[in-house]
Amino acid sequence: MHLAAVVVNRGSYTITGVDARFSPDGQNLAPPRWRIRVSGFGRVPEQLRKEFDSRDETAARDILTPWDAGLRFEADAMEVRDLKSPYLLVRWTDRWGTRWEHKRGEVGQVRDDEPWTL
């Protein structure tokens, strides 16, 4: 089984440095195994997308604009028996350079160099 989460930017401004950690049991943290960003670029008319190098979109893997579909994070495979109250921690930076963290339903400021904790 894999834990997965989708992060969506419902704000009015682009956020950067979007990252996540999984806690499968409320005691340990694990980084995502992989992430995929689904941009809003597909909604741009084909004539405007012509000759665009899609690798530029891949380079923006930790950025979410308000028009992007979102970021999907997935953890390594784990046994169902090891999942005890799993949850996700998410961090991002707003347009003013303030770093934020969502943890257990609460949002608060964190420092860039602050370690991930439960």
Structural domain tally: 1
**Total number of beta strands:** 7
DSSP helical segment count? 2
Major β-sheet strand ordering: 2-5-6-7
Q: Give a quick account of the main beta sheet: strands, pairing sense, barrel closure.
A: 4 strands, antiparallel
Query: Any low-confidence stretches, pLDDT <50, length ≥5?
Result: none
Strand content: 35-45%
- Structural class, from secondary structure content? mainly beta
Helical residue percent band: under 10%
Shape: globular
- Taken in chain order, the helices and strands follow as EEEHHEEEE
- Mean pLDDT across residues: 89
Amino-to-carboxy terminus distance: 22 Å
How many whole angstroms does the radius of gyration measure? 16 Å
Task: Quickly describe the structure.
It contains two helices and seven strands. With 118 residues, the chain is mainly beta.
Search tags:
single chain; 118 residues; mainly beta; 4-stranded antiparallel sheet; 3-stranded antiparallel sheet; globular
Structural summary, described in words:
The structure is a single chain. This protein is mainly beta and 118 residues long. The chain has one domain. Helices cover 8% and strands 36% of the residues. It is built from two helices and seven strands. The strands form two sheets. Strands 2-5-6-7 form a four-stranded antiparallel sheet, with no helix packed on it. A three-stranded antiparallel sheet has the order 1-4-3, with no helix packed on it. A hairpin with a 2-residue loop joins strand 6 and strand 7. It is globular, with a radius of gyration of 16 Å.
